[in-house]
Design brief:
Chain A: InterPro entries: YdjM-like. The complex is a heterodimer of chains A (337) and B (82). With 337 residues, chain A is mostly helical. Chain A has 14 helices and 2 strands, in the order αααββααααααααααα. In chain A, strand 1 and strand 2 form a beta hairpin. Chain B has 82 residues and is an all-alpha fold. The chains are: A mainly alpha (337), B mainly alpha (82).
Chain lengths: 337, 82
Amino acid sequence: MSWAAHELESYILHGHTKTKVSYLAILLGCFLPDMGTKGTVYGFSIFGYSFKPEHAWDYHRGWPGVGFTHTPMWGVVLALLVLWLFKSREWALGLLIGQWAHALTDCFDSVGVMLFFPFTTQHYSTGMWAYAAQEGRYGDAAAYYGSLGLAWDLFWLAMLLLNWRTLRPSYFFDKVYPADPAWGWMRRRLRMSDRFLVALYHAYFLYGACRIFAWTIWAQTSEDAPMDWTWGGPYWVDKATVDHPSALEFASNTLLGLTGLLVLCWVTWLAVGRRLWWRTPPFTQVEVVGVPAVEAGLPGDGAGPDGGADQDGGAGVEGVVPLAAGEAPGAKAQSAT
Amino acid sequence: MKSRSATRTRAGDVAGYLVAVVILVAGGAVFTRNILTFNRGPAVAVAAIVLTGWVVDRVWGRRTGRDEEDRAGLDGREGQDT
């Protein structure tokens, strides 16, 4: 499994998404596959009962088990649920992007993920570093940061530093804040200052970047874990792998899985997705009723509610910008003035 | 909605981020999971940035006589949705 990569990639993904999307949803999507599963994968004790799967890799990434949480199909299901229940395009799209990124990032360890589940349980893995969750949390940390897992996290840190504009406060206020009502809610209801909001936005960057170095220092000093830069390392851990089928079987599984997933996604879009999508208005910060959009300077006249360029092409209804889910009308009216 | 104070880097911001990095790296290497979890780590970062920033800006403001201007950005009076 990847460690800091999941936090760091969320900023890059938001920076490269060309439509309005919630950063918090991308971050949540990047975490979701491991949020409910990682504790049980490492094992835990409660009221004298201990739980630890016999084969951590099979439980975490396989089927039967919780491996479905690391599949693109699960991301589609979650996005549709969010679109249906919370009526937010920005959150649905963000969750989908984040969850898919998590699944693809985890393809690089020795176990990989079932990319085309439920059509095939074939695992896709590059085997760059050893999957070692069966060694417990600390054993996993020592193995990951004693191998090319460290290089993988540093790669994502370098990518993020190359995309440094996504870390600037101006990017946060221009692109991140206007795309998600959650930030406005936090500012108004929790009375968060600008510094607090920017710190909150930067929190997972700092946490992700710093824990690369903290865990590496810990592994090299406390655990005395030898650094192994070879592909599939480290050599000193009992590496978990999955059975590799023949090339023909691999190709046929891939063809079947890819075709099945594409067809299912297309049918789901036609049957459910597009109706939910078009029924859900894009989030806008300003609510003005009875005023032509051109006069109000609303989306549709090319200018966003914060004065920036609007990327969604407007709300589609002249003079009426629909409320986003969970937004207080008064707060919007106030922000329009 | 962007305000000038929100995008301007102050001495308190720099100090806050430096303290957060030191706590997360040094503290994380020593205390590992007591700090380095997906909820505690970011919480430590936010607390370090906000508290250190607040203290440094107060001290900096008193020395330079710009206390009022800096405090205005901290308590949320600037950068409202306007």
